[in-house]
Design brief:
The structure is a homodimer of 509-residue chains. By secondary structure, the first copy, chain A, is mainly α. Chain A is built from 20 helices and 3 strands. The two termini of chain A are 44 Å apart. Chains A and B meet through helix 1 and helix 2 of A and helix 1 and helix 2 of B.
């Protein structure tokens, strides 16, 4: 349990603790400044600005790295190793220590080589994808595997290198638990999707067919954000080619994108990013710049976006609330019922090869396939040249479809061109966590469905703020889930959720 | 003359020079990152972001200050004091040395106190202006005068404190020359404005009367920027409450503002900011982050904006070119002639008390009045309590009008609430320089008027790039003007320009 004293309470904190926190505030503030520059780069910057922006970001990154790894930080951490700290103070020090040790372990030259490798891999990946030529990208992937193994070795030569890389994105969740969850997911979803493929259920999949002008979709996205309670005095909605969220507890902005033939895509993206933004906006302002005011890692972040996207935005109560607004913007759907909208929003795309266009179920198999392949690459159990065939085999095995090209196969996503191995699993882990958190919220809140249908999101906001957001990085991932839900973090709630929901939708026995 | 070797040419540069430049690139890159944050704050940031943004900017400012003033920088400068440098290298070192010495001379506590005094003075000034209560602002102005005198004393106890403050904005132009120019301006303009007041000339001042919707004005501003040659792949046009320019040679953005009853205001502002942007965009990209790739100071920057705003944007050839575009957007001016537009754009507002609404002539008396008062305050020749009366007396003496309230008198501008003494004169000094530069360009370019009327701005862009932009901070201010025009920097060209132009417009003998 947390003590009553806050970690910023100077009265009983050792001086070294205060000094360390003041330094952390400085480097995190610089990190957050870099976040503004990255947002600007994707949303506002004219193309000519790229060379200056790259230099600005790398200067900020160096300054931040220098502060995090310098002797003064090391000495303060050493002093604090034996200090008497409250639980919150100890948590803050634990987080800073972890970040310091990882950053200090990796030689600067290796960091620079990885950054250079990414810069070179990106255009190669773009060309390989455009020309469906995996061989053009293969040497870059090879180089990334080699460099990232070196990187893992520098951090911890005694551990499984994939585990070390995974910890860049999810530092306080064991790889065993992560793998167990992903395996359970695969074992549940593969037969479920097969059953859906064979089901005779006739969903109202054409509810949102037609053309939906971008301007109206943008207005509708704003209305959706207002409905769910986005605070525009601390945020913005803009457009970018890949939707993302950027910011802190004072100013957290979302982006979305529009496809004239797919209004559900923009709505889903917008609500997804809203979930990310609510997490950041719910972090304690007084702890900004310290671990107690920073979000937990990627799985937890993704749990917040998926909770809003799937458990709220794809629910019947939400469509009861939202459909009238949609009809005002788009009279062409005037005849749709709530059931129609719900079915359209939850249809399973049986023949889709592309992750970013996937539904709530098949999505995870796209993730799991890439996870299994990158894990085996990093562990040395798979060679780069075998990736395309293994990829296609797994699609056939798990999803019953086989890509005809590598462009719509293993080249579809950008992440490997950055060498980001270990990132993908957090997408699925977050969705699983979302189900567990939502089930606990639903249990704790009287008539949550009715509240949502009535547009009253306050109880859900309060539950999430109280049980997740306000803790910052106070708890490690498992601990946070257990504090919030009373249960260890498992796939159980997710499996219950999809079995009930898709069982009903597709008349599965 | 510049040597052929560039300052970045490593072949014959001492190692200390390369090291110093690398450090300068780092701190200037951080400074330019802060510029992006400041732009965002004024153009994009939601209001809730203020606390985080203030911290981000102050962290970046500290980091930059620490690098600029640390022992390594001091040692490198010492080493280079006796090194054999090319002219360009010597210029780069001169600029870095000046910045280092000023920053190192001022105690950090004093910098912080000034920053705090500004934070407190700003809301007090806002309230004082809103309630027309100078006494509410007076103690803050008093404090700024005291702190800025201390600041000047720390930098150079043997010099006139106003001279030292002026050098914050214009470090390489002597205060004597500046004062001589401002005095000549006053002596020319006061009788000229009196004569205009008595003139019977009947200008087409109502050419742009009516309502001009904001959206159309924005479209027209974009068209104006396209006409004069703004490179939108390296810039943007946005809206902010005070128009400004922000950026570097890769990405330089302008803002403007709209008043539905005053389309000339937006056009003038937009072209003014374009002039600032062209200067930054014309700086050598290879020298970005070093003094050879940074703009000269405020007077030179203002010369570029005023050259475009006044010598181009208020000229007959420009209106020959631009009026058809204006008429397409605003059919209500379909009957206006080029002469009408020219007269409307150049009318002298005889009864205007507000600087930011002033014309090309009376503008300078607004500047000179504030300059004379702030100079006397800083020198100890005037007390804060006497400011309102002295202000009003000067308006009566120079402009023939007397403010009835302090809100439209000495409280009208924000600058003193920041303690920015020494900044104002650069506005007029820049306009004077613009006239001298434009006269030289006009002399050098065949048929410049015809080129402008035909929409061919290339010769003017090339002349400015060659004679001003590409030099960065290679030359000191006077030297730059003399290199570009063959004459020392004086008010002569400006006086010739206004006497000819306004003599004709107002039938002055």
């Amino acid at each position: 349990m947390a003590t009553e004293a806050t970690a910023d309470d100077a009265s009983d904190a050792p001086e070294a603790y205060e000094t360390l926190l003041e330094r952390a505030r400085r480097w995190n503030t610089i990190g957050s400044a870099a976040g503004v520059l990255a947002w600007d780069q994707q949303v506002m910057m004219p193309e000519g600005g790229t060379p200056a922006r790259s230099k600005q970001l790398s200067s900020l990154s160096s300054v931040r790295h220098d502060m995090l790894t310098d002797d003064e930080t090391a000495e303060l951490l050493e002093t604090l190793a034996d200090s008497d700290l409250t639980d919150e103070q100890a948590a803050a020090v634990r987080e800073i220590r972890r970040a310091h040790e990882r950053a200090a372990a990796v030689p600067v030259e290796l960091v620079e080589e990885i950054s250079e490798a990414s810069s070179e891999a990106l255009p190669a990946w773009e060309e390989a994808k455009a020309t469906d030529d995996f061989d053009h990208f293969a040497p870059h992937l090879e180089r990334h595997v080699r460099l990232k193994r070196e990187y893992a070795e520098a951090i911890d030569p005694d551990s499984d290198p994939y585990e070390v890389l995974f910890a860049d994105y999810e530092p306080c969740l064991s790889i065993e638990r992560a793998e167990a969850i992903l395996t359970e997911l695969r074992e549940t979803l593969v037969p479920m999707i097969e059953a859906i493929r064979e089901s005779d259920a006739d969903l109202a999949v054409d509810t949102f067919e037609g053309t939906f002008p971008t301007d109206d979709q943008e207005a509708l996205s704003r209305e959706a954000l207002e409905l769910v309670g986005y605070d525009f005095s601390r945020g913005r909605l803009d457009v970018s080619s890949h939707p993302f969220t950027s910011g802190n507890q004072f100013d957290c902005r979302v982006t979305t994108r529009f496809d004239e033939s797919d209004p559900l895509g923009a709505i889903g993206s917008t609500i997804h990013e809203f979930g990310h933004a609510q997490y950041n906006l719910g972090l304690p302002q007084e702890h900004w710049g310290t671990p107690l005011g920073e979000s937990r890692d990627l799985s937890v972040h993704e749990s917040q976006s998926r909770l809003w996207e799937n458990h709220v935005g794809r629910s019947k109560p939400f469509w009861e609330l939202f459909l009238p607004t949609v009809k005002e913007r788009f009279p062409q759907v005037a005849d749709a019922t709530v059931e129609d909208a719900y079915e359209a929003a939850n249809q399973v795309y049986e023949d889709n090869l592309i992750r970013v266009e996937a539904d709530e179920l098949t999505y995870h198999l796209h993730i799991i396939i890439r996870f299994e392949i990158e894990r085996d690459l990093v562990r040395g159990d798979l060679t780069v040249e075998d990736v395309p065939e293994v990829w296609n085999d797994k699609y056939e095995e798990y999803l019953g479809i086989r890509p005809e090209t590598d462009a719509e196969g293993c080249l579809q996503d950008i992440h490997w061109s950055h060498g980001n191995f270990g990132y993908f699993p957090t997408y699925s882990l977050g969705s699983v966590m979302a189900a567990q958190l939502y089930a606990a919220a639903d249990e704790a809140i009287d008539d949550l469905d009715d509240a949502i249908a009535a547009g009253d999101f306050d109880p859900l906001h309060e539950w999430l703020a109280e049980n997740v957001h306000r803790h910052g990085s106070r708890y490690e991932t498992n601990e946070l889930v257990e504090e919030a839900t009373g249960e260890p973090y498992t796939a159980d709630a997710f499996i219950d959720y999809v079995e009930a929901k898709y069982g009903e939708l597709y008349d599965l026995s």
